[in-house]
Design a protein that fits this description.
120 residues, two-stranded antiparallel ribbon, single chain
Length: 120
């Protein structure tokens, strides 16, 4: 049993973060593949296992490199933004315009609406 649990911090493109505990199932699922070569020692491996080990290492590093480069390219091209961010921004602008128009409109004592001009 573990005394201290590791925590994962997941960073989203919107700037939000989420902390998550590492589950024992995930760490136990990863352990057998790594322990095979650590226990046996690299000198005692057959050529097939040695080639398999290095083949998987090359594939893992290649995938990690592609993921990194793809993430940087997506950020450069603006593909990490929200899909309908332009619609959200337009809604916020309209809402601000309506609020400014309402704040510049006053009602007189007789119920008529008077528009005041703002000093710009």
């Amino acid at each position: 049993m573990r005394q201290s649990q590791q925590r994962k911090v997941i960073h989203f493109s919107s700037g939000e973060t989420m902390e998550e505990d590492d589950s024992e199932e995930e760490t136990e699922a990863e352990q057998p593949h790594r322990d095979i070569f650590n226990k046996a020692g690299m000198d005692n491996l057959s050529w097939r296992r040695y080639a398999w080990f290095w083949g998987t290492q090359v594939m893992i590093k290649s995938l990690q490199t592609c993921d990194f480069v793809g993430g940087k390219l997506a950020g450069l091209l603006g593909l990490t933004l929200a899909k309908y961010q332009y619609a959200i921004d337009e809604y916020q602008r309209q809402k601000e315009r309506e609020e400014t128009l309402l704040s510049h409109t006053e009602t007189s004592a007789y119920g008529t609406t008077l528009k005041t001009t703002s000093e710009e």
